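Researcher: I'd like a candidate sequence for this fold, 271 residues long. If you have to choose between options at a position, lean toward the conservative one.
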């Protein structure tokens, strides 16, 4: 557990999956196995001031998608992870979604007969207006990343709160906007006088993303990613921020140090 201000922070690793790796489309040579990278889905739980806030949900129990079901290598362990902190999904008061890509929101629903059922029935769902608009009308580049059924379920069933731009969500918790991976992604930041933790979302989802010359194949705007990443790593390095990783299978958090060839991960507290 990590305490920042009035909040206790917990890291919940709920699933692992495989994702296409490599700089070229994976079907260049159909005779070779597809290069695959092992990734985690990890959620940030923030408890304090009468709130139990969950940042992202992971892919979920996969009943709604054969595409993700084929990629998952472990079952979805949301309930077990929440239970470690004496909580159930119904206790979550706020669900803050970094962005509406399916691997970040799929766990918000489970299958009930012929329809999807919300897993967090009492949670207010907070998402950036610009990302919501993108998710409702994805272009060809992003069509595979957003799932129409999930977005529509959110719209109908949840108390959906859209916010715009840099915004203090609650005292001590604000967001940084990033547009390179997808439009209107929000990176959640928790801070007090001494400690700052920033959820890297899909701008800096693993320590392998520290090099400021690297982007991910499904980033929509490589130049913007590089600029946003460099600015955040620079500030994190200077101010001793802890970065939280939603997809790193090996580390849940790290600080940022300057090495001879660029930024490198430094030690971070266990929580
Ligand atoms: Zn992701």
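Model: Candidate sequence:
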């Amino acid at each position: 557990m990590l305490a920042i201000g009035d909040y206790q922070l917990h890291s919940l690793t709920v699933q692992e999956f495989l994702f296409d790796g490599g700089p070229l489309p994976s079907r260049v040579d159909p005779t070779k196995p597809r290069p695959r990278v092992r990734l985690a889905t990890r959620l940030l739980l923030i408890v304090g001031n009468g709130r139990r806030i969950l940042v992202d949900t992971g892919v979920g129990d996969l009943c709604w998608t054969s595409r993700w079901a084929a990629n998952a290598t472990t079952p979805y362990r949301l309930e077990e992870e929440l239970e470690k902190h004496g909580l159930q999904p119904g206790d979550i008061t706020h669900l803050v979604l970094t962005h509406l890509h399916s691997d970040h929101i799929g766990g918000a629903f489970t299958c009930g007969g012929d329809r999807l059922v919300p897993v967090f029935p009492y949670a207010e769902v907070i998402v950036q207006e610009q990302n919501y608009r993108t998710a409702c009308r994805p272009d060809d580049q992003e069509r595979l990343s957003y799932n129409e059924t999930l977005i529509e379920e959110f719209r109908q069933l949840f108390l959906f709160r859209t916010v715009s731009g840099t915004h203090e969500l609650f005292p001590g918790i604000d967001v940084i906007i990033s547009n390179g991976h997808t439009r209107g992604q929000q990176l959640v930041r928790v801070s007090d006088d001494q400690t700052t933790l920033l959820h890297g979302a899909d701008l800096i989802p693993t320590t392998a993303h520290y090099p400021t010359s690297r982007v991910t194949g499904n980033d929509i705007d490589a130049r913007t990613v590089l600029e946003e990443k460099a600015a955040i790593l620079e500030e994190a390095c200077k101010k001793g921020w802890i970065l939280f990783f939603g997809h790193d299978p090996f580390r849940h958090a790290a600080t940022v140090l300057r090495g001879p060839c660029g930024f490198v991960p430094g030690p971070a507290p266990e929580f």
